[in-house]
Amino acid sequence: MGRISRRAFHGTLASALAWSAIPKAWAGPNRPTRVALLLSGVITDGGWSQLAYNGLKELKARNGFQIAYAENISIAQMDQVARGYSDDGFDLVIGHGVEFSSTLLEVAPDYPGQHFFVTTFLPQPEVPRNIMYVNMGYFGAAYGAGALAALISDKKRAVGFIGGDDDPNQNRIKKSFIAGAQQTVPGIRALAIITGDYDNASKGREAASILIGNGADVIWHAADVTGLGAIQGAVAGNVKVLGCYSDQTDLAPNNMATSFLMNLGGMVISISQEVATGTFAGGSEWRPPVNEMWLQKCGKNGDYNSRLVTAEEWSAFQKVWGDIASHKIDVEALLK
């Protein structure tokens, strides 16, 4: 069994991305609310794990929280680590990723006075009252990315999506991207390649080359390391690209129109605040609005690169984005 890095924070840490609607202070209990974040990855991955970790750092900068985390947790270690923090009396244990779903579902009933949160879809209709899951709006974000890609396409011939594993969620993301592009700009083609791999940059580059060869002049990915290759391929083909999960502007400063950044830090802060204030709605699936769960960021450019996106195009995208958030555009209905 590999070594688990289990740590608590000490000292004051810098502020990170936070849920915009959450105040900097609130009335809390006399003792601090204790929050533990469990990660299968590392806090320096530049994406999924690090963004959630940034939210933990933000909590430490506020009053009323005691924070700890464990990284590099294998499947075999998850039960041990989750029960360790629970035995230590942590008020909230967050399992970051679908791989924690079944473990925390089994652990939660043994600690009815504590709270558990898993960053994936509700796995079954009924779950214990002290555990919560989340729908992070992947499909709404994908529809929005398709809409933006179509709007900023110069030739209005085709745009492209590159996915990772060939699983149901990636295929729904693909379908949502296609719908967003084609419903926003009638007549444009939305092309897609599911590579079958999240961790192969060469497959991402090859997929981008194929899409560009078929007329796509804007590329979006949802494919982790494979997506890094997709960005490289977009640069090599001199087309526009949209980042995913984190702000990826630095990877392609001249080609990146914007990135669809998951507000994982804000999610950690929000759910921790609910535990602190006694409003944690366990036994359910939380569904934050897509425009709070996903943010558009483009490094020093602000929300988008004005050299690649006109003000009119951005305004049209914002209209679509708001309609997704308000469910005027019902993306999930399109997937049925």
Structural features, described:
With 336 residues, this protein is of the alpha/beta class. It has two domains: 5-134 and 264-289, Rossmann fold; 138-262 and 306-334, 3-Layer(aba) Sandwich (Rossmann fold), CATH 3.40.50.2300. The chain has eleven helices and 13 strands. The strands form two sheets. Strands 1-3-2-4-5-6-12 form a seven-stranded mixed sheet, with helices on both faces. The protein has a six-stranded mixed sheet with strand order 8-7-9-10-11-13, with helices on both faces. α5 links the parallel β7 (158-163) and β8. Mean pLDDT is 91; it is low at 9-29.
Sum this structure up briefly.
The protein has 336 residues and is α/β, with parallel strands linked by helices.
Task: Please give the alpha-carbon distance between the first and last residues.
Answer: 42 Å
Summarize the biggest pleated sheet: 7 strands, mixed
> How many domain units?
2
Strand order of the largest sheet: 1-3-2-4-5-6-12
CATH class of the largest domain: Alpha Beta
Poorly predicted regions are 9-29
Task: State Rg.
Answer: 20 Å
SSE pattern, N- to C-terminal: EEHEHEHEEHEHEHEHEEHEHEHH
Query: Strand pairing plus helix content: what structural class?
Result: alpha/beta
Counted beta strands: 13
Helices and strands in order, then pairings?
Elements: E1 5-8, E2 33-39, H1 48-60, E3 65-71, H2 78-87, E4 92-96, H3 101-107, E5 115-118, E6 131-134, H4 138-152, E7 158-163, H5 168-184, E8 189-194, H6 201-213, E9 216-222, H7 224-236, E10 240-245, E11 256-262, H8 264-277, E12 284-286, H9 290-293, E13 294-297, H10 311-325, H11 331-334
Parallel strand pairs: 2-3, 2-4, 4-5, 5-6, 6-12, 7-8, 7-9, 9-10, 10-11
Antiparallel strand pairs: 1-3, 11-13
Helix pairs in contact: 1-8, 4-5, 4-10, 6-7
